[in-house]
Amino acid sequence: MDALDRQIIAALRANGRATYADLGRKVGLSASAVHERVGKLESSGVIVGYHAVVDPSSVGLGVTALIGIHPTDIADDNEVAVALGELIEVESCYRVAGDESFIVKVRVATVDDLERSLGRLRRIPGVARTRTTVVLSTRFEGRPNTGDEDDDVT
Amino acid sequence: MDALDRQIIAALRANGRATYADLGRKVGLSASAVHERVGKLESSGVIVGYHAVVDPSSVGLGVTALIGIHPTDIADDNEVAVALGELIEVESCYRVAGDESFIVKVRVATVDDLERSLGRLRRIPGVARTRTTVVLSTRFEGRPNTGDEDDDVT
DNA sequence: ATTGAAAACATTCCGCT
DNA sequence: AGCGGAATGTTTTCAAT
């Protein structure tokens, strides 16, 4: 992984649909060289995937909440994680340090759905209680941070 | 927004680099029809963007933390939000209900960097104190949830 | 709003450096 | 590891429906 790879990654984080020709122009390489590098970045697991980002309320998911999961004394974290993964409304799941074992982000259509979702969460074996923080607005989300200074990616 | 649009959105969430021809085959439309629909979804703000997802530790950002921001009595939330946005390590920023005004997700290289970042956060005018939850592992993150049942997107 | 055709463009493979 | 050429496939525009 050299500076060129990092530039390519930054460009693909900014625009996941950039063509190899575009990327080549940006970093000063031929399209085929970029193609080869991106292929290696993908198969080595640096680039995990490409996703369209959708405005949640446009797809009927206007309610977001961050929920801390308190485990029971005998909880198996792995089983809890699997059960959390089975709930479609759980968008992200973090195993955390502290007296909560997980923090999850859920997206649902309405507060009624949130209530139902909390019911499902609490019914998971190993979950003692939940602590819910409702998101009022998302200022920004998933911003690219390449790890170093230069972020001039148009 | 009809069922076809939703199918296209789901496919682009699963694979942000799918070609219009691919999408057309998947939903039973010509590439040009898909092109037109996607263009409308983009300009109407349903599709916000396309991003490559990168393994954070591969780009030297192995430490993730979720940080609650407690405001001072006289804090201006908007000013705090702007200041949070200026910190490159703050990847996401949610305005929340409760006694914390924001919850942010930060990604840094090391716990030393986390300490420095917390210093920067606390120095923001309007920030009284922070509550930090260190992420031990990310089980999953940013999973697509189309809002309804069928999620059979290969 | 969708199509099919056509031109421009991008991808992808391969031999060469 | 990168380049350029060539074949194939895709994007993008447009007239027609």
From TrEMBL, chains A, B:
SMART domains hit by this protein: HTH_ASNC (SM00344)
Gene3D superfamilies noted in UniProt: 3.30.70.920, Winged helix-like DNA-binding domain superfamily/Winged helix DNA-binding domain
One Pfam entry name: HTH_AsnC-type
Entry superkingdom: Bacteria
Keyword match Transmembrane: no
Domain HTH asnC-type: 1-62
Keywords for this protein: DNA-binding, Transcription, Transcription regulation
Keyword DNA-binding: yes
PROSITE patterns documented for this protein: HTH_ASNC_1, HTH_ASNC_2
InterPro entries (UniProt xref): ArsR-like_HTH, AsnC-type_HTH_dom, Dimeric_a/b-barrel, Tscrpt_reg_AsnC-like, Tscrpt_reg_AsnC/Lrp_C, Tscrpt_reg_HTH_AsnC-type_CS, WH-like_DNA-bd_sf, WH_DNA-bd_sf
Name of this protein: Lrp/AsnC family transcriptional regulator
Species this chain originates from: Lentzea miocenica
